[in-house]
Amino acid sequence: MDHTVLQPVGAEVNGVSLEDIDAATVTDLTALLAEHGVLILPGQNIGDATFVSFLERFGELTFTVGETPVPEFDDLNVISNVGRTTPPKSTFHTDTSYVARPPAFTALRAVTIPLQGGATQFTNQYRAFDTLPADVRADLEGRTIRHVVTGLDLGDDAETEAEHPVFRRHPVSGRTTLYLSTPARCVSISGMSDAASQEMVRYLFEHSTREDNVLRHAWSPGDVVIWDNACVLHRADHDGVVGDRVMHRGMVAGPATVAA
Which chain positions lie within coiled-coil regions (predicted)? Predict the structure, then answer.
């Protein structure tokens, strides 16, 4: 197995087959995820059974209530533009941050690639923290963000909100990451007024998603991409997509967040 580091986030990994993966390789991939945030695994012409088996090597799988499951694979959900008259909407976010233990990893398997467009974009949240002005860091030290669910019908018993540290300690690397999601889900910052919270969340989001902090991955047939939700944001770019875009998504459960 070898890898090529991408900028400003991510790595492309070659020389590994997801159909026959051992414990040592999983350990290596986990370390690469903690360091680089996103791993692109090209040429993996696998089905959903192999995809699920691969993800289960990283831990217990989890599913976002309200998403559409893949037939016969209840741990996976479908992401698709098929049959839509308007493009889906996607803003940068981290997955399911409105629960106390957000997913550690998310992965996508390319099922159908459009003729044009449909890239997935990722940010480097280590770098987002490292490049914050000193006065902003000082102001946010020890604060938390309240994350709430949007756009999903979860039912009466599901988790719908959670508090997470603004500055999160990565559970593997120990490095500090700026942990937030799309502004609509980040409704308040502890110790700040509503107006100040909204202004700061907008600032942090814009800072995180600057063009020089974004990796754009153009999909190829056979691609599998896995990322670490503790240190990246992601979004699908639906602008100018021509043709069907179908992905199957799986997520690995994660630990409770810990302040840096």
Answer: none
Residue with tokens 């990796």: 215
Quick one: which of 255, 254, 243 has its CA closest to 113? 243
Residue 136: CATH number of its domain: 3.60.130.10
- Which residues of the chain are modeled with pLDDT < 70? 153-156
Residue 260 falls within a domain, yes or no? no
Instruction: Give the tokens for residue 5.
Output: 């580091």
> Based on the number of CB atoms within 10 Å of its own CB, is 91 exposed (0-12), middle (13-18) or buried (19 or more)?
middle
What size, in residues, is the chain?
Answer: 260
**194 falls within a domain:** yes
What are the b/e assignments for 170-187, b being 16+ CB within 10 Å?
Answer: beebebbbbbbbbbebbb
CA R_g for the chain: 18
Question: Beta strands 176-178 and 105-112: pairing type?
Answer: unpaired
Domain with 72, as residue range(s), is 2-252
Burial letters for 229-248: b for 16+ Cβ neighbours within 10 Å, e otherwise? Answer: bbbbbbbbbbeebeebbbbb
Q: How deeply is 157 buried, as exposed, middle or buried, from its count of CB atoms within 10 A (0-12, 13-18, 19+)?
A: exposed
**pTM, two decimal places:** 0.95
pLDDT at 156: 66
